[in-house]
């Protein structure tokens, strides 16, 4: 119908929500994922560690009274949230595989067998893009590279977004001092490697969690029914911006293979 409004597509992430229209190649708007609570003198809360806190808040954030809305959300939230969205995403499919979803606030490992989520085997990992940003910020502070203190987090976000690709080559980041308006530049070297490395050595950023992501995937798959373990290994899907680092897939595959081979060798002996 010529006069029909196009459907809106929204991806509610931990830090930011991406909004656009169906058929577009990229989002029209990128806004922080937060709401204003009336009579509380407080703006927030951000979706802490990627968990929604209330249906009313979600309704306030996604008002679809004027247009149809398609929400791109994950299936591993509290029961009330899972019940609302799982059916829309996986119930009509018959796929078996493992989804590693890593955004800004949390990383989770989700297993789907024949189109059904194995809820008891969903694993949350308290390491994600925000932790990488804070880790890079601390590395830059330790080096004392001349970044204005009030812009250290902004600089770390920019480095995390564009330069943290695991390359061995040094790149240069250039910024503008917000106060003096003078240009400053820094060399970005080992931050490019150590940033994504916290997925495989999380103790770098979180002393309370020391299990690499490859071991988490292996452990959770072993907790799944034995008849679906092989397809879960064979079909691993990466989702979220924090899985887009260069060679992240190859590193995860290599570490998983080492873990599985070591377990098989131990069982043979």
From TrEMBL:
Q: Which Pfam families match?
A: Actin
Coiled coil feature spans: none
Which top-level group of life is the source organism from?
Answer: Eukaryota
- This chain belongs to which protein, by name? Actin-related protein 3
Q: Which family does it belong to?
A: Belongs to the actin family.
SMART domains attached here? ACTIN
Q: Which organism is it from?
A: Monodon monoceros
State the InterPro entries in the record. Answer: Actin, ATPase_NBD
